C-alpha cells in the first residue's frame, strides 16, 4: 500500500501539480502577498512531494536498513516545517521528486520483449492418433507422442524426426542464416519453423524442458541479475546524513540560532547531486536519438566508455542476414555462367526453399528470361527436378544426385564453398553434373572498417555465432576478427559472456536475433540491430541501432566519455555550491528561504550544463566518406529526358539546396559491397 501511494505521488502528473503549488508560492513571495502559514501554497508541494519522500526515506531506513539521500532531505523538510519555513520545505521535497522522476525515465526497462518471446511458444500441435490427425493443445502432448508438422507450421515441442525430410528455419534458436536440412533421426527444436515438406516427429521434451522454454528462462534469469543502479547521492548518503546533522547541530549550538542549523540542512540537501546523473543521461539519450541510436539505459553509457571487449553475433549484425548468389561455377567449357544460372533458376522457379528463391531473384536481377519448368518435382531436404528446353535438370545436394544415379565428383568445389561459409546447389543436366551455385550471406559494407576502428581504440573483438565453424571463420577473416566460436546455442553464447566477465573484462554484446537475447541481457552493455533485429533482442538490449549502422559504435563510445565528463562536472559544481552555501549558512548570511533559493539555483545550473550535451557535435567520430573506391550514380531528370553519369564515392544524405530554381537533393544509399548515391534534379 505504501509503495502504491509513493509511486502515485512521485508520478509525472502529481510532480507537475506539486511544482505548480511551489510556483504560486514563489509568485506570492515576489509580490509580497502574505498569507497565514496554514494557507501557504507550498503546503501543496509538501503534501504531494514531501509525504512520499518521507515514506520512502522511512521505508529504506526501517525495512531495507538503507541510509539514503531521501533521509537527509526528509530531515531538512521536517526541520523547515518545525520553524515555519514552508517554502523551504516544499522546495527540497519537489527537487527530490523531480530527480526521482528523471531517473525513472532513464532506467526504465520495457518487458514487452519477454512477452513476445513467450508468444513464440506454439499453443497447439497436430497429434497422430491411430493414423488420424487431431489438433490438440500443447499441454496435452506427452513424451513419445507422434506429431505431424506441415510446411509453414512451427514445431510444437522438441522431438526427433521419424518420417519425412524437410528444411527447418532454426534462426530463433541458433541464429543460423541458412535453413537446415533435416531427415529421419535428426533433432528438431520447439518454436522452429518448418519451411517445406511434411514431417512426423516423436516428442522428446515438453513444457518447461523444451529448448524454447529454456531460452525464455535464460532471458528471465539474466534480467533478474541486472541490479538497479543507485544514484550517486544515495551511494554517498551514508556519510552525508551524519555530516549534515553534525554541522547543523554545531551551528545551532555555537550561535544559539536554530534557523542557521535548519539552513545548513536545506543547503546540504544533495538535490543538485541527484540531478547531476539523470539530466546528463537524458541529454545524451536525446543526442544519440538524433543519430538514430536508441539508448534505454543510463548505466550503458557509463559502461561503454570503459569497455574493453566487444562480442558480435554474425547473422544480421556483421552481415545482412539475406542469402544471395555468390558463385556461379560452370564445369563445362561450352556452358556460360548465364546459361547455368538460367537452367538452375528455371528448375527452382516453383520451389519455396530460401536457396531456390535466392537463385530465382538473382536471375531476375540479371534480367535472365526464366523458363517455365515442366514435370516439376520437389524433394524436401534434398532438391528439385524438372524438364526444360535444355533437357532433364536435377538441382540439389550430393546425396540427392547420388540417389538418382548421377555421378557427383565436385568435392573440391564443395569444400571450397563450405570453407567460405557458403551453401551450395549442385546442378545436373541429362544425368551429368554441369555446375554449382554458391550462396552466401552478405557482409555489411562498414563491418570491416568498424572492426578496424575498434582495434585502433584498443578494444578486443570476438565472434560468437550459431553458424558452423567453417562459416564463422570465413566471415571473421573477412572483417578482421581473430577470435571465433561457432556452433553455439543460446546457452553457450551466454556461457561465453559470463566467462569473459569472470576474466574481469567489460563486455559489450551486439546481436539481432531471439537467440541473442540471453547473452544481450547478461553482457555489461548490449546493442541490438533495430531495423532487422527481433523485438526480443531489441527489448533485451540497452542500445538499439535504428538504422543498423554498426559504424556508430565509436560514436557511442565518444558520447559515453563526454557524458561521464559532464556528470563529473555537475557533481563538482553541486559540491562546490553546497560547500559555499554551508559556510554562508553557518555565518548567518543565508536563511532557510534564501538558502532554498541558492539550493535551487545550483540545481538549475546543473540542469543547464547537462543540456549543453544535447547539441554537442560528435560528427567526427561517425564514419566519414572515403574519397576512393565507392561508386555512386547521378541521375539528372530534365524535361527532355534522363541522363546518367557515373562518378566515384559518396555516402549519407548530404545537402538540399536551390540554385536558379533547380532543386538538388543528394541521397546516398548502400548497395551490395558498394555505396551509391542518387541525385535527383527537378
- Low-pLDDT segments, ≥5 res: 106-114, 222-230, 621-682
How many helical stretches?
24
Alpha-carbon distance between the two ends:
65 Å
In spatial order, strands of the major sheet run 10-22-21-20-11-18-19
Please identify the oligomeric state. Answer: single chain
Taking all Cα atoms into account, the compactness measure Rg is 33 Å
Q: Could you report the average pLDDT, rounded to the nearest whole number? A: 77
Largest sheet: 7 strands, mixed
Helix vs. strand class: alpha+beta
Query: What helical percentage do the residues reach?
Result: 40-55%
Total number of beta strands = 27
**Shape estimate:** elongated
Q: Beta-strand percentage?
A: 15-25%
What's this entry about, in short?
The protein has 682 residues and is of the alpha+beta class. 47% of the residues lie in helices and 23% in strands.
Description:
It is a single chain. The protein is α+β, with helices and mostly antiparallel strands. Among the domains are: 2-109 and 227-281 and 560-614, no CATH class; 116-223, Calcium-transporting ATPase, cytoplasmic transduction domain A (Distorted Sandwich), CATH 2.70.150.10; 631-681, no CATH class. Helix content is 47%, strand content 23%. The protein contains 24 helices and 27 strands. The strands form seven sheets. A seven-stranded mixed sheet has the order 10-22-21-20-11-18-19, sandwiched between helices. A six-stranded antiparallel sheet has the order 12-17-16-15-14-13, with helices on both faces. Residues 106-114, 222-230 and 621-682 have low confidence and may be disordered.
Amino acid at each position: 500500500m505504501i509503495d502504491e501511494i509513493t509511486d502515485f505521488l512521485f508520478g509525472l502528473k502529481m510532480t507537475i501539480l506539486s511544482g505548480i503549488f511551489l510556483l504560486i508560492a514563489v509568485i506570492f513571495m515576489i509580490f509580497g502577498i502574505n498569507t497565514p502559514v496554514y494557507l501557504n501554497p507550498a503546503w501543496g508541494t509538501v503534501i504531494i512531494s514531501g509525504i512520499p519522500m518521507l515514506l520512502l526515506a522511512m521505508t529504506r531506513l526501517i525495512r531495507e536498513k538503507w541510509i539514503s539521500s531521501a533521509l537527509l532531505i526528509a530531515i531538512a523538510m521536517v526541520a523547515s516545517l518545525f520553524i515555519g519555513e514552508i517554502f523551504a520545505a516544499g522546495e527540497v521535497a519537489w527537487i527530490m521528486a523531480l530527480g526521482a522522476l528523471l531517473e525513472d525515465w532513464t532506467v526504465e526497462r520495457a518487458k514487452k520483449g519477454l512477452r513476445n518471446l513467450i508468444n513464440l511458444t506454439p499453443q497447439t500441435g497436430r497429434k497422430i492418433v491411430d493414423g488420424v490427425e487431431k489438433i490438440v493443445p500443447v499441454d496435452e502432448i506427452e513424451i513419445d507422442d507422434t506429431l505431424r508438422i506441415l510446411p509453414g507450421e512451427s514445431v510444437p515441442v522438441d522431438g526427433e524426426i521419424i518420417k519425412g525430410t524437410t528444411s527447418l528455419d532454426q534462426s530463433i534458436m541458433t541464429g543460423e542464416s541458412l535453413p537446415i536440412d533435416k531427415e529421419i533421426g535428426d533433432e528438431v527444436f520447439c518454436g522452429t519453423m518448418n519451411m517445406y515438406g511434411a514431417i512426423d516427429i516423436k516428442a522428446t521434451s515438453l513444457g518447461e524442458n523444451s529448448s524454447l522454454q529454456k531460452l525464455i528462462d535464460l532471458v528471465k534469469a539474466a534480467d533478474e541479475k541486472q541490479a538497479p543502479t543507485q544514484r550517486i547521492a544515495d551511494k554517498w548518503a551514508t556519510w552525508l546524513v551524519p555530516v549534515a546533522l553534525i554541522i547543523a547541530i554545531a551551528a545551532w549550538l555555537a550561535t544559539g540560532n536554530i534557523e542557521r542549523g535548519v539552513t545548513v540542512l536545506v543547503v546540504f540537501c544533495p538535490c543538485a547531486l541527484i540531478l547531476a546523473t539523470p539530466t546528463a543521461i537524458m541529454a545524451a539519450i536525446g543526442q544519440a536519438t538524433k543519430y538514430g541510436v536508441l539508448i534505454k539505459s543510463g548505466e550503458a553509457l557509463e559502461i561503454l566508455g570503459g569497455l574493453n571487449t566487444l562480442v558480435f553475433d554474425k547473422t544480421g549484425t556483421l552481415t545482412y542476414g539475406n542469402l544471395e548468389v555468390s558463385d556461379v561455377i560452370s564445369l563445362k567449357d561450352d556452358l556460360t555462367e548465364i546459361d547455368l544460372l538460367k537452367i538452375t533458376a528455371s528448375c527452382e522457379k516453383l520451389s519455396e526453399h530460401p536457396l531456390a528463391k535466392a537463385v530465382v531473384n538473382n536471375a531476375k536481377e540479371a534480367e535472365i528470361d526464366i523458363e517455365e519448368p515442366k514435370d516439376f518435382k520437389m524433394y524436401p531436404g534434398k532438391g528439385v527436378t524438372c524438364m526444360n528446353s535444355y533437357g532433364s535438370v536435377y538441382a540439389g545436394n550430393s546425396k540427392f544426385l547420388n540417389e538418382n544415379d548421377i555421378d557427383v565428383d565436385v568435392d573440391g568445389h564443395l569444400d571450397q564453398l563450405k570453407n567460405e561459409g557458403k551453401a551450395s546447389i549442385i546442378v545436373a543436366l541429362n544425368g551429368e553434373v554441369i555446375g554449382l551455385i554458391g550462396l552466401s550471406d552478405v557482409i555489411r559494407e562498414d563491418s570491416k572498417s568498424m572492426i578496424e576502428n575498434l582495434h585502433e581504440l584498443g578494444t578486443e573483438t570476438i565472434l560468437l555465432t550459431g553458424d558452423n565453424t567453417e562459416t564463422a571463420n570465413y566471415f571473421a577473416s573477412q572483417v578482421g576478427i581473430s577470435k571465433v566460436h561457432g556452433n553455439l546455442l543460446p546457452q553457450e553464447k551466454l556461457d561465453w559472456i559470463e566467462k569473459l566477465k569472470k576474466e574481469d573484462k567489460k563486455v559489450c554484446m551486439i546481436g539481432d536475433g531471439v537467440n541473442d537475447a540471453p547473452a544481450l541481457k547478461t553482457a555489461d552493455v548490449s546493442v541490438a540491430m533495430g531495423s532487422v533485429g527481433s523485438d526480443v533482442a531489441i527489448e533485451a538490449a540497452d542500445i538499439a541501432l535504428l538504422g543498423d549502422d554498426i559504424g556508430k559504435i565509436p560514436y557511442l563510445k565518444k558520447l559515453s566519455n563526454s557524458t561521464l565528463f559532464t556528470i563529473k562536472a555537475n557533481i563538482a559544481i553541486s559540491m562546490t555550491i553546497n560547500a559555499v552555501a554551508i559556510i554562508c549558512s553557518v555565518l548567518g548570511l543565508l536563511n532557510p528561504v534564501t538558502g532554498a533559493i541558492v539550493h535551487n539555483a545550483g540545481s538549475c545550473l546543473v540542469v543547464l550544463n547537462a543540456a549543453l550535451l544535447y547539441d554537442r557535435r560528435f560528427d567526427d567520430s561517425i564514419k566519414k566518406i572515403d574519397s576512393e573506391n565507392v561508386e555512386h550514380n547521378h541521375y539528372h531528370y530534365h524535361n527532355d529526358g534522363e541522363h546518367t553519369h557515373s562518378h566515384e564515392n559518396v555516402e549519407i544524405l548530404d545537402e538540399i539546396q536551390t540554385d536558379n530554381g533547380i532543386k538538388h537533393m543528394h541521397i546516398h544509399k548502400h548497395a551490395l559491397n558498394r555505396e551509391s548515391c542518387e541525385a535527383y534534379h527537378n
